[in-house]
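Dear colleague,

Following up on Tuesday's group meeting, I ran the structure prediction for the two-component complex that the binding team flagged. I've pasted the input sequences exactly as they went in, so you can double-check that nothing got truncated or mislabelled along the way. The structure tokens for the whole assembly follow below. Feel free to forward this to whoever is handling the docking comparison.

Inputs:
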Amino acid sequence: MRDPRPRKASPRKVSGAKPGTGHFEEFLENPAHFMLRAWRECGELAEIDLGGMRNVLMVGPDAHEAVFRAPDSQLSASAPYQYMVPVFGEGIQYGAPVAIERQQVKMQANALRASKMKGYARIIAEEVQEWVAGWGDEDEIDVHRELQQLVLRTSTHCLMGTEFREKLTDEFGLLYHDLEQAISPAAILDPYGAGEVFERRDRARARLQEIIMDVVRERRARPAEHPDMLDTFMNARYLDGSRLPDEMIPGMVVWIMFAGFHTSSNTAAWTLVELARHPEHVPEILEEVDAILGPGQDLSFASLREIGTLERFVFEVLRLHPPLVTLMREVLEDFEYQGNLFEKGTTLILSPYVSHRIPEIFPDPEAFDPHRPAPENVFALIPFGGGTRKCVGNAFALLQVKSIFCALLSRFTFDLVEPAASIRDFMPSLILRPSEPCHVRARRRERSSS
Amino acid sequence: MRIRVDLQLCQGHGVCQEEAPEVFRVVEVPGAYDRVELILESPDEGLREKVVAAVRFCPNRVLSLEE
């Protein structure tokens, strides 16, 4: 006997499944809190019943590593996310075969390359400064709304360029909202079903196709270089040398926007909340930011620099409040993990929200502490996922958040309006955000020498 | 100085190539992401600073240094 463990282990089942629907209702109410309960009750592997389908929550760095290292042909990221296909469009991302999808991801990654960041940093700095200039000396700020509006502006501008940003940001935001409303539990069950929200989604998608194609056509008529992501898509080619067809470009735009908008805006929202909740950490960040923002240095330069204190703070925000609380994979070929066999058809769930609260890795996990040492295991802290499917917009997201907080902290101090404990993790959609009401009072700092 | 590469994690971002083009090259792979290739497995000490930056800024933590 080489292996003393029993041949077939199996995960413990989470209690409280209802006949027919299993844990579906509790899951929908707040996926983050449900996953946390599942782990507390069952440990590293927890079997969840979402209405008949077998789902297993896998918690911890070893489990993450096993999943992240498995090939797409064994664990598919595309299968569990098919409800995104009517949003992004046929032939785009999970609506395309894996080999094509990978090349499209590469086009996205090309739009987000380090060499492009300088241009984006300039655009973001401009937007942030203009936005903040509209604040008074003492204003009450609706955290979620304000940062959503700001990140909508910075991201549309970097994505679609100046012309588009000046004309269409508001309409873009509304159409985007209609797409997002259709990402619901009903869509997960049947994304092509009947219903008002799905009709609105399809109308919004068709309108986005129209307005983005207009920009594409205008640009093709008057070729010039633009420092934005649309420019990258318009020049993108597949490996065989063929161009990304123009009618696919709107799908690429919607996709990158979906991946980056709410994730970044809610990370920024939570960062502002935690800064206001933990003013004791502000001076050290401010000292570093002020030193970088000294005479002659502008915001775009600063946001590209390493700002250790601010970055550690943001990573602690991402540890406790990862915008995506679950990452799913569907088993296409039997997958074994520590003596457990997961057959074809099983959905595996990783949860940054849960794994970031393992006390052996993050002592006193609920405490917000930006001075925590980074875990040694690279698979322990996974706000951007990991492996070959890790978020390719990671650096861009960080650039936006750094730019926003360099600008805000150098100009204002913040106090929470509501009691600190009243603001909690809230999930009205698939993305984690602070609960409402959530306001901060922004007071203009005494002007320093520059 | 020896460089180790964990190819299973590489997405071909090319940050390493930007930091140390003498040492890293990112190549296209049909049907998959671009992938890093080592031009030099054991580069000279003179390149250490660049290599350390490449290891540190790799978005997927694909690279590590021995010695």
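The first strand of chain B starts at residue 2 and ends at 5.

Cheers,
M.
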